[in-house]
Amino acid sequence: MVEIFTDGACSGNPGKGGYGVILRYNQHIKELSAGFKATTNNRMELLASIAGLEALTKEGSEVTIISDSEYVVNSVIKGWVFNWERKAYKDRVNADLWKRFLIAYRKHQVQFKWVRGHAGHLENERCDELAVAASRQKDLLIDEGFQG
Questions:
Q1: Which of 3, 122, 124, 131 could make an SS bond with 9 (beta carbons 3.0 to 4.6 A apart)?
Q2: Among residues 35, 123, 128, 143, which one is catalytic?
Q3: What rounded mean pLDDT belongs to the chain?
Q4: What is the distance between the alpha carbons of residues 88 and 85, in angstroms, rounded to a whole number?
Q5: Is 143 a catalytic residue?
Q6: 2-11 and 62-67 beta bridge pairing
Q7: Residues 136, 105: Cα–Cα separation, whole Å
Q8: Which residues, including other chains, have CB under 8 Å from residue 148's CB and lie 6 or more apart?
Q9: CA dist 119 to 21, 22, 57, 60, 126, Å?
Q10: What is the pLDDT of residue 147?
């Protein structure tokens, strides 16, 4: 079982943002992060899950994504994203990322677990640190799909 811990951060909404990810498989741990010039918190939360899934090298993995994002978790477990997909994402924000998410999501057996943010969850706190640090870097990336 692979665990993917995720968090996103944004200074202002929209504003500079970043995501942080921890991948854990048995004793192996890998951290990922990236920062963007202009984005939103929801985009960073979603991009964190995407980055974690896309980092997996073996298709068909059993994965649990642990996130403090109700937006991401509820969109999947309540089936909203699948309805948006059926309706060709009509009038949906972040459609570019949801399309990318579903490609990565469908390569694995994914479960979601929601955790309360800033509540002392060790990996969630670390992901927040990674996301905030990434958003403060000098050479920030451009979030191509951001419609600000």
A1: 131
A2: 128
A3: 97
A4: 5
A5: no
A6: parallel
A7: 29
A8: 14, 38, 39, 40
A9: 17, 17, 31, 32, 12
A10: 81
What are the counts of helices (DSSP H) followed by strands (DSSP E) for the chain? 5, 5
How do strand 2-11 and strand 15-25 relate by DSSP bridges?
antiparallel
CA atoms within 13 A of residue 85's CA, in its CB half-sphere: 13
Given 7, 52, 108, 143, which residue is catalytic? 7
108 phi/psi in degrees, rounded to 5? -140, 175
Among 113, 5, 2, which residue's Cα sits nearest to residue 59?
2
Q: Which of 18, 52, 68, 108 is catalytic?
A: 68
Q: What are phi and psi of 121, to 5 degrees?
A: -70, 115
| Residues in the chain with pLDDT values less than 70 | none
118 is catalytic: yes
Tell me the two tokens of residue 8: 């996103």
Q: What is the model's pLDDT at position 87?
A: 97
Catalytic residue of the set 17, 18, 20, 45: 45
Is 68 one of the catalytic residues?
Answer: yes
Nearest partner of 72 among 46, 50, 38, 41, judged by Cα: 46
